[in-house]
Amino acid sequence: MHLGSGNVLRTPNDQYICIVPQGDPAAPPTGYLPFEGDRMLTVILSKALLLANDTQITDPTILGQL
Known about the structure:
The longest helix is centred in the C-terminal third of the chain and has 14 residues, at about 40-50. By secondary structure, this protein is α+β, with helices and mostly antiparallel strands. Helix content is about 30%, strand content about 10%.
């Protein structure tokens, strides 16, 4: 994962994995996060957590890239 852009590249051939962050504006706030307001860190952490739990991924677009 590139820390400057938040892009995810798969080894060994650096294949780009497209993961588009989605947010639910109607969702209640979850509380203060120490990095609140840092959009890139939020994107990086959400992608890292998503990929760490890859057995829970149900989105066919993401699954097709893995």
